[in-house]
Amino acid sequence: MLEALHTPHESEMIFRHQGSFDGAELTVTYAVDRVEHEYRLDNGMAAVADEFLLAALLSVPEDRLVRVDSRFEKALSTSSVAPLATVLQDPEGGVWAQRRAHPAANVIGIEIVSSSLRRGCSAAQRWAGYGPRTVQAPAKASTFELTEAAHYGIGVITDEGQQLLSPAPFVPVRWSSARWRFAELVYAQFRELAG
Predict the structure, then answer these.
(1) What is the pTM of this model?
(2) Domain range list for the chain
């Protein structure tokens, strides 16, 4: 079920839903970029889940044409890339490109429900680098388990909704292809749920 949340900025919409991501059941809170979402709808573009293509897109800037690294030439030279990037074949050899696509979703929080804090923290480690992580687990947590969760920046909420720890602030330095892919998986589910 898609839940719309308060939207602090006109340029984004905040949503939350539960879904399966690479075999893990997560509840994800995220912001959808209105401009990118409308661009994708207008151009018939779906979510992009190909991590190699996303890495190729990240290798080119959005403000100018640059020569494409030879390892990404093939990925950027297909006709399906046209809405994502401006790509030009150099008559003297090589490919030049400028990125047009941006991540359509930005993950604000990842929640994992678990039967124990230890299992939940173990599952949360898999999602380090993708957004703030919180584990919802029974209130029976030892001081050691809470200390370990705090050390790894994992927030803890009891089954009754009591917040024992806040997740550490998530300040990414840059988009990685893996993080962009996760955002695209979230966006794909958003599109499906929004109809």
Answers:
(1) 0.89
(2) 3-34+104-165, 49-100
